[in-house]
Amino acid sequence: METRVMRRQQEEQSSQMSHSVRLSSHIKKKSFTSSDEEASYADFFPIIPGDLMSVKEVLDVHFPRHRTWEVLKETLAADEEYHRDKWTMFGNEAEKVELDVLRNQRLLRCRADRASLRRKAEEKASARQRYLELLRRKAPDFSIPLRAHTVWEGMGVILCCTVEGRPAPRVTWYKDGVPLQRSGQPWNRAFKHSFGLHSLEIRRCSVADAGLYRVEAKSALGDASTFATLVVNSYQGVAAGWQRSQTSAVVPEPEAQFASTFPPTWVEEGQTLSLSCSFISDLTPLQQDMAWIRDGVQLHPSSSVEIQCSGRSASITAKGIHKEHEGVYTLRLRSGDGFLEHSTYVYVQDAASLVPGAPASPLAVQVSDVNKDYVFLTWEPPSADGAGPVEGYYVERCTPGGPWVRCSEKLQRFCFFPVFGLEAGTGFQFRVSAKNLAGVGRPSKATEPVYTQDPLEPGRTMVVKADKGRDIVITKDQLEGEVRVPLPPTDVRAGERSDSFVVLTWNEPDPRGREALSYYVERSLAGQNSWHLASMGVVVNSPRFPVFDLVKGVPYRFRVRSINKYGVSDPSQASPPVCLGEPPALPSAPHSVLAFRDTDSSVLLQWQEPARKDDVLGYYLYYSLAGTQDWKTVNNKPVTKTRFTVHGLRSQKEYVFRVKAVGRAGNSKYSDESSPIRVQAAIVAPSPPSALALLLCTGSEMVLTWRAPARDGGDPVRGYYLDKMEGWQEPWREVNTRPAAERLYKVGGLTAGSWYQFRVFAANAVGLGKPSEASAAFLCEEWTTPEPGCPYDLRVREVRCGSLMLLWEKPLYQGASPVTGYRLEISQDDQSESWAPLTDQPVPDTLYAVSGLQAGRTYRFRASAVNQAGVGGASVPSEPITAETRPGAGNVEIGVDDDGSIFLSYEAAESTEASTFLWSRDYREAIDGGRARVEDRSDRSVLTFKEPTEQDLGLYAVELSNDPTQSSSYTFTAQDLERLTELSWQVQHPLIALISGWNVEVTEEGGVRLWLQTEALSSDAELRMILNDAEICSSSRRKIKFDRAGGLVEILFDHLSHEDEGSYTAQLKDGRAQNQFTLVFLDQNFQQTLASAAASRRSHLKKSGPYFLELLSWAVTEKCELIIKCKVTNINKDSALKWFKDGKEVSQAKYDPSSGASQLTITQVTDGAAGVYRAQVSDGRGEDSSTLQLLGEELDEVRRHLSRQSALSAGPLRVQGTAEGLKLFCSMKLCLSFLQSSWFFKERGVAPGARATPGRDEQQLWLQICGPSEADRGPYTLEMSDGLETHRRRLDLSGQAFSDALQEHQRLKQEAFAEKNRAKVAKGLPDLVAIMEGKTLCLTCLLDGDPAPEVSWLRNDRELCSQGAVVVGREAQRSTLTLNNVVMADSGRYSVRVRNLHGGETANVTLGVYRPGEKPPAHAVHVV
C-alpha cells in the first residue's frame, strides 16, 4: 500500500516538473488558463496574416520551412533583445505564481471530483433504496389473524393480530361494524402497536363488550381484514358447564369471473376509444392489479389513457386515437392458477379527409439514426389510396409548440427519407402526408419529440473503479486535450441509398480532440482525381451526409475532411465507388386467399405470403359484398401474420376478400379475390338433447321423447341415438344403430319389472354430439291408470313482448276415457317450482295463444291432459322463455304481388343456407299444393294463393326448420280477401309509375322546358300530348321529345308566348299499363315562367347584341296620362327601336338614342288603349324584345291608377244656379268614364230620377237638381272610388249659399224662358247666292217665336216692300222675298229682321248677279 502511494506521489511530482519546463520554455506568457478554460490559437502557433501564408501552408499540419518563417524569426529576434532583461526577472516570479495557481487548481479539482463522486454515490444509493423499496412493496395481509375468545364477566382479554404490508397499512378496529375510538374508555381499553403486532386489551369485560371484533388494514396496494367473536359469559343463571366460540379461518374471497366483455370495436381516427367489462363478483385485491395490453405491450395511465377499476367493472379510455393504436386489446387478471384474459380487436377507421378523394394518412412514422443534424425517417403507406394511386409523400417537421414546415418541397416516392440540416440539441417532431391526383390527405400521427445529439457522446465517458468503492469518471475530452488540428475521418462509405439519394457515413477521427468537429465532404468521378466540395454552403456537424444531386448510373468517390477551431485535417481515404441505388420494388401480391366460417358476424381469412417477402411489412385486407365491387378496408394497421379474423360482417350475406402486401416502396397489387363465402357460424357437433320423458309403457316396450338440442351446430340434426342402462349397472348399451329421425322412439325388448335409464345423442354432418343427462329411472310395467298420460313436445312459438303461442302434442296413453281438454300452468322465473293455472277452464285444442305477459319477465309452461277420470301427469316444463320481441323479428305480411296474386310472406332475421321455411295451417295441416305454392328466396319465404276463395281462410303459420324461435302467423279473414281481390284487379291493370311529375325549367338562352319522368318504358310505348283538349305535335316553335328507355317526356319552347298558356296532358300507354299526367300552365305560374324566360333571354343577349335594360312598364302622370316606357342599352348607330300594339307598328313612341330611353304617351285611356304592347330593339348583332299586356287585370290596374289620379285632381264641390235648377259640380283635370262616382244627400244616396240627374264630361262631375225647393237644403257629398280607395268632396248647401243659388236659378230660368220664346229665324238663309241676270230669285226663311214675330226684309239696310219686281210674302211660320227679272243693280246684302216682345234677330244673305257667259263664284249657292 505504501509503495503504491509513493509511486503515485512520484508521478505527480514528475508531471509538475514537466509542466513547469513547458511553461518556462515559452518566450511570451500572456495568460494562464485553467483546465476548464479554452486555449487560444496563439498559445501554440503564431498568428500569421493571410497575405503572408498560402492556404496550403495553413492546411499543412507539419508547417515546412518557408520564407515567411524566416521573416517572423528575424522580427522575434529583434524584439527579444529589447525585452530580454524585463522577461528574465518577470519569468522567475511568474513561474512561482503559476505553480501556486496550478496547485490551487489541482486542489479545487480534487474537491470538485470528490463532491461529484459523493453526489453520484448518493444518487445511486437513493435509486437503489427506491428500487429495494419497490421490491419490498406488499399488499396488506394478516399473517396471524384474530382468535375468538370466551371469557367470564369481569375477566380481562387481549385480542391481537399481526399485520404485514409495505408501505405500512393503516389499521382500524371495529366492534359490530362500528369503529372503535382509541380515546374511548381509556380506563378499560388499551390499543397497542409494536412491529406489526396490533392488540386490543380489555381489562375488565362486561356483557356489553361481547360481539364481533374486526380489524381492517388498508394501504394504496389494497386492503385486508380479520375478525373474531368475543363471548362474555355471565355468572347469573349459569349453573355449570362452559361455552366456546371460535372464529373460523378467513375464507378466501372467490375470484371474479367475466360477466360481460367488450366486443370488437370500431372507432374513427382522432376520436375517443372506450372499452369496459363487468364481473360477476367484486375483484379480489390480487385481481385489482389488472393489466391492459395492446399487441403484447402493457398500457399505463397517462394524459391520453385513463384506466379505471371499481368494484365489479373495469374500463380503459384512450383519447385522440390513431391508426397506430389499432390492434388486439387484452384485459388480463390474475387468478389462482394463472391469468384470466379477454381480448378483442379494435379497428381504427380513417377520419374524413379535408380534400375529397385524397388518400388516407400514413402511419408508424419512425425516427432512427439520430445525429446532431441528421435523422432518418421511415413510415408505412396508408391502406386507402383515395380517388387515385398515391404519387408521393410530404415530410414535415416542427419544434414543440412551433409551426409545421416541410422538410422538402419535392415529393418523396418511397416510405423513407433522410432529414438533414437540423439544429443540434433541439427537439423535433415529424409527420408525413400522402398525395394523389385529388390533393394532399390528412397528416400522420406526429412522432414523439426527438432531440438531435451526438450518439457517440455517451461512449466518451469512462468510469474507473477506485479503492474503497470510489468511482472516478474520466472523459475522453480530458485525455485528448492535447489534440489540436484534427485527424482525418475514416471508413467513408455509403449507407442508406435509393434511386434519388445516397447517405454518406464515416467514422469520426480517433482521437477526436476536445474541440467541436464539423466536416467538409468532397467528391470526384470514379477514376478521376478532380475533387470539388460536395457540401458547399452546408455545415456538416455529424458523420452523416445525404447527397441528392447525383447522376444515375455514374460512379462517384467521396472523401471527408475534419474541421475544428484549430484547422482542417487531411482528406480521408476515398470511399469505394458509389452509385445511386435501384428504386425499391413494390412487393408482390399475396395469393391463395381463403375464407372460412367463424361466427355469425366474422370470417377467418388466410392467405399465402408472396414469394419475395423480405421487404413486406404487413398486409392490408379488403372486403366487399359478393357481386357489388364496393370494396371497403378491413384494417388500417398492417397485420404481420397471414391469417386474420374479419369482424363486423352481416350475417347470412356473401362476401369476397382480397389482400395487399405493404412495403417501403408502397402497397402491392391486390391479390385475387377469394371465393364468396356466406357469413355464418362454423359447423360443429350439436349440443346434447334434454328432458327425456316416458310417454307409454306396455310392459316390454317403452315410448320415449326428448327435447331437441338447443344448438344444432350450424347443420340440421340428422338423427338421434339412444343408450340404455338397466338397474343402474354400467355400461351403457346401444338401443339403436340406425339414427332415429323423430324425437319419439319405441324401445323394445325390455324386461318387465326392471328399472331403466336412458340417454340420447344428437348427430349432424359433423358427427355425434355429447350425450344428454341420464333420464330418471323408469320402471318397465304396463300402464293401467284411468287418468291419461302426459302431453309431450311442448313448444313455444311467436314470442313477443307480452304474448306467445303455446303448442303441444296429445298424450300417447289416453287412459280409461278419451282426452277432453288440457290444463295449462305457468311459472315465473326459470327455477321456480311454484305453478299457477294459466286458464280457468281446460283448453280443448293443442295450441293456445298466451297473452298478458309482463315484458322482460321469464316464464315456464307445462300442460296436463284431462279426461273423465281426472287430470293426468304434467308434461316436461318448457324451456325458460323471456317475454320480449327478438331483435329483427318479423311478422307474416299479406299483400298482392306484381302479377296480381295474393300472397303471405315472412322474412327471417337470421336464416342460413340450411334453413327451411315450414308453412302450415293452424300449426297442423300442411299447405295444399293445389291451392297455394311456397317459394323460398334467400331469407324470405312467400306463400302464394292460386285462386283464393273462402276455403283458404284461416290461420297460417311459418317457422324456420333449424330455429323455431323465428316464427309468426297470420289469420286470413274474409275482409282481407275482399280488400286484396280488389287490389289484385288494380295490379293486373297497372298504371305507369311516375318518378318525377311535371317540372318547368327555364334555360340560359331563355327557352322553356316542360318535362316529366316515369319508369322505364318499352320501345312500343305511345305518347299523346293534349293542350286545352286538342292534340298537339312537334312544330318549329314547340318541340316534343319522348325518351322511352328513360321514361322522359319533354316539351321545348324556344320562345314562350301567350299562345302556349293552357293545360298540358301527357297520355302514356305501354302494353296494358297506362297513365296520364296534367300540367296546369296558367295564370300566375305561366306569368312567372314567361317573365323568367324573358329575363334569361335578355341576360343571354347581353353577351351579344342590344338588350332591354329596363323592360316595358307603365306609369300614370298627374295629368292622367298613361306613359309606357322602356330603356335599352348596348346599342350603336345601327340599332333600331320599334313599337308594336297588337302586332301593328306604332309610330307615336319617342326614342332617345343617346340614353336609350323610349316612351309612348296615351293622353286619354279608353277601351281602345287595351292590347299587347311590344318594343323590339335590333341591329346586326341580334335583337331583344319586351312585351307588356294591357289586358284583363293589368288593364284594370291601369284604370285604377288613372281613377285615383283623376280623383286626386278633383277640386272642391261647388254649386251653380241654372235655368233648370241647381247644379252641384266638381272640376278635375280629366274625368274618366271608368271613374266610379256616387252622390249623397244627408248621408243618403241620391238615386237618378226626374229631379236629380248626375252627369259628367271630360272636366267635371255634376248633379243637376231640377225644380229646387226648400227641401233640397242640406249637405251634399260626392264619393269617387278608384277600386281601392274612396275620395270624398263635401258641400253644405244651406243658408245663404242655397239662397244665392236659388236666386241665380230663378234669374236664369226667366232668361231661358225669354230666349225660348223670342223671335228668331228657325232656318237661316245661305251666306252667298249667285243668280244670272234676268232670272227670278226667291228667298224663303222659317220663323219661330211666341207671340208671332214681325218680319221685315232689307236690302243694304233699307227696308223693302212689295213693289214692282220685289214681292214680300208672309205665311204662318214662313216669310219669302221674290225678285223677278233680276238685274245687276239687284246685287247686294239682303237681310230679314224678325221681332216680338221677347226680342228678335236678323239673318243676312249676299246676292250676286252675273251676266250670261260669266262663271258664278265657286263658293256661292247657284240659283238656276
Walkthrough of the structure:
It is a single chain. The termini are far apart. The protein is built from eight helices and 99 strands. Mean pLDDT is 84; it is low at 1-8, 15-69 and 236-251. With 1424 residues, the chain is mainly β. The chain is extended. Strand 38 (616-625) and strand 39 (632-633) form a beta hairpin. The strands form 25 sheets. A six-stranded mixed β-sheet has the order 94-93-97-98-91-99. Strands 2-9-8-4-5 form a five-stranded mixed β-sheet, with no helix packed on it. The chain is 12% helix and 42% strand.
Explain briefly what this protein structure is.
The protein contains eight helices and 99 strands. By secondary structure, the chain is mainly beta.
Question: Which key phrases capture this entry?
Answer:
single chain, mainly beta, five-stranded mixed sheet, 8 helices
Q: What topology emerges from the helices and strands here?
A:
Elements: H1 2-25, H2 55-59, H3 67-136, E1 138-144, E2 149-152, E3 157-166, E4 170-175, E5 178-179, E6 189-194, E7 197-202, E8 211-219, E9 222-233, E10 258-260, E11 265-268, E12 273-279, E13 291-294, E14 297-299, E15 305-310, E16 313-318, E17 327-335, E18 338-349, E19 363-368, E20 374-380, E21 392-398, E22 405-406, E23 416-420, E24 427-436, E25 439-440, E26 450-451, E27 461-465, E28 471-475, H4 476-479, E29 490-497, E30 502-507, E31 518-525, E32 532-533, E33 544-547, E34 556-564, E35 567-568, E36 591-597, E37 603-608, E38 616-625, E39 632-633, E40 643-646, E41 654-663, E42 666-667, E43 677-678, E44 690-697, E45 702-707, E46 719-726, E47 733-734, E48 744-747, E49 755-763, E50 778-779, E51 792-800, E52 803-809, E53 821-828, E54 836-837, E55 847-851, E56 858-867, E57 870-874, E58 881-882, E59 893-896, E60 902-907, E61 917-921, E62 932-937, E63 940-945, E64 954-960, E65 967-972, H5 974-988, E66 994-1002, E67 1008-1014, E68 1022-1027, E69 1030-1032, E70 1038-1043, E71 1048-1053, E72 1062-1070, E73 1073-1081, H6 1083-1101, E74 1107-1116, ...
Parallel strand pairs: 2-9, 11-18, 91-98, 91-99
Antiparallel strand pairs: 1-3, 3-7, 4-5, 4-8, 6-7, 8-9, 10-12, 12-16, 13-14, 13-17, 15-16, 17-18, 19-20, 20-23, 21-22, 21-24, 24-25, 24-26, 27-28, 29-30, 30-33, 31-32, 31-34, 34-35, 36-37, 37-40, 38-39, 38-41, 41-42, 41-43, 44-45, 45-48, 46-47, 46-49, 49-50, 51-52, 52-55, 53-54, 53-56, 56-57, ...
